[in-house]
């Protein structure tokens, strides 16, 4: 039985962003393939904890300090070395410069795999300082996985790695989502209407939500925003300034309410305008529920999930007029929108299920560990 150690700066249950969702799905699904998994991460809690989470072991070590969103923890170096010695494969999740340091300081000497979730986009000074260590780290690992062919084609870092890189798309598993409850569906229908566009995600600078609000000017179709985040107050102020009565900020909602809104919505709008949005799991959720999608062309996985003219519409980034026209097209052509949603659901089943992702990684783990592949 291969033993896999995942290493990343945060993990479930502390946070549940895109990378954390991927780690949780891989760790929880690997047992079906005879793989034993440990996830090592930092935590803002004051003491270290070890617990079983969704069928895998979770080790969380207190954070010491952060520099430019990079967490450091000196006790984690010791714990990483201890767990790495017991592992058959170490699975890193990039980017996290402290992880690169741990890799070289501990000298684990095990097969190593990196899932390359994103380039470093915003922290230009950090990127310049980190570049030599990053290059050495990626050159030293056994294998690198890109999450979409689009990102592989547009990332200068990945292109330099050549044959060392393969593509395994991110997937999500329908069985992990609750079934929409009729009572919740009725409640949300009464609150926001029979048809609306839906955004779900953390309110961050790269999500393009300011563009979406500008695009909503002069329209009357409802737009529901699920989420909270660092720029929430700024967005609400913008909506008030623009006099937007069709924008519904519903905050953080339960999983039951989220699937109710996904089942009800007319389409999913995902206006991320910067490459910091490397994939877009919210788009996958829309596809899984058979909804047409609207996204921007930013050279990342968003346009691998959403194929323009097939599963939805793709517009230029930071273009409110184009985004407004895309929403208007789906709104006024419900038959076309429904057909796009059907094709989105079919593409999800073909490429983006959680089982498909876990199976691909399980085969890679076994190859790196020198073991024959097994069937779940």
Structure summary:
With 376 residues, this protein is α/β, with parallel strands linked by helices. Helix content is 43%, strand content 20%.
Globally, the shape reads globular
Put simply, the count of helices is: 15
Q: Which residues form runs of ≥5 with pLDDT under 50?
A: none
Largest sheet: 8 strands, mixed
| Class by alpha and beta content | alpha/beta
Number of E-state strands: 16
CATH topology of the largest domain: Rossmann fold
What does this structure look like?
- Helices cover 43% and strands 20% of the residues.
- The radius of gyration is 21 Å and the shape is globular.
- The chain has helices spanning 18-29, 74-86, 97-106, 124-140, 149-154, 156-159, 182-192, 209-216, 232-242, 255-264, 281-288, 302-305, 320-332, 334-351, 354-369, and strands spanning 3-7, 36-43, 49-53, 56-62, 65-67, 70-72, 89-94, 112-116, 143-146, 165-167, 197-200, 223-226, 247-251, 267-270, 293-296, 312-315.
- It has an eight-stranded mixed beta sheet, with helices on both faces. Strands 13-12-11-14-15-16 form a six-stranded parallel beta sheet, with helices on both faces.
- It has two domains: 3-173 and 353-369, Glycogen Phosphorylase B (Rossmann fold); 174-351, Rossmann fold (3-Layer(aba) Sandwich), CATH 3.40.50.2000.
- It is α/β, with parallel strands linked by helices.
- The longest helix has 18 residues, at 334-351.
- Helix 3 runs parallel beside helix 4, helix 7 crosses helix 10 and helix 8 packs across helix 13 (320-332).
- The chain is built from 15 helices and 16 strands.
């Amino acid at each position: 039985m291969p033993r896999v150690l995942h290493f990343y700066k945060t993990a479930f249950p502390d946070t549940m962003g895109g990378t954390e969702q991927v780690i949780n799905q891989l760790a929880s699904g690997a047992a079906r393939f005879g793989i034993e998994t440990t996830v090592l991460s930092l935590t803002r809690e004051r003491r270290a904890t070890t617990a079983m989470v969704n069928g895998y072991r979770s080790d969380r070590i207190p954070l010491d300090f952060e520099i430019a969103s990079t967490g450091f923890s000196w006790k984690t170096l010791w714990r990483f070395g201890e767990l790495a010695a017991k592992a058959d494969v170490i699975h890193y999740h990039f980017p996290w410069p402290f992880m690169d340091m741990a890799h070289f300081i501990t000298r684990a000497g095990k097969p190593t795999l990196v899932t390359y979730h994103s380039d470093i986009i915003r922290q230009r000074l950090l990127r310049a300082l980190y570049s030599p260590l990053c290059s050495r780290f990626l050159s030293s690992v056994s294998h690198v996985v890109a999450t979409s062919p689009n990102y592989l084609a547009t990332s200068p870092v990945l292109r330099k790695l050549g044959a060392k890189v393969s593509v395994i798309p991110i997937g999500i598993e329908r069985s992990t989502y609750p079934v929409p409850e009729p009572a919740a569906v009725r409640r949300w229908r009464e609150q926001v209407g029979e048809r609306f566009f839906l955004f779900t995600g953390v309110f961050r600078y790269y999500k393009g939500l300011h563009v979406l609000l500008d695009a909503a000017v002069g329209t009357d179709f409802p737009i529901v925003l699920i989420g909270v985040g660092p720029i929430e107050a700024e967005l609400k102020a913008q909506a008030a300034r623009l006099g937007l009565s069709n924008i519904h900020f519903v905050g953080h909602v339960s999983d039951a309410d989220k699937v109710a809104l996904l089942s009800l919505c007319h389409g999913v709008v995902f206006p991320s305008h910067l490459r910091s949005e490397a994939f877009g799991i919210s788009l996958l959720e829309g596809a899984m529920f058979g909804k047409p999608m609207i996204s921007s062309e930013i050279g990342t996985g968003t346009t691998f999930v959403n194929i323009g003219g097939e599963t939805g519409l793709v517009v230029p980034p930071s273009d409110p007029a184009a985004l407004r026209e895309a929403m208007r097209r789906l709104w006024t052509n419900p038959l076309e929108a429904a057909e796009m949603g059907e094709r989105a659901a079919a593409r999800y089943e073909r490429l983006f299920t959680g089982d498909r992702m876990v199976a691909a990684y399980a085969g890679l783990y076994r190859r790196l560990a020198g073991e024959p592949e097994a069937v779940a």
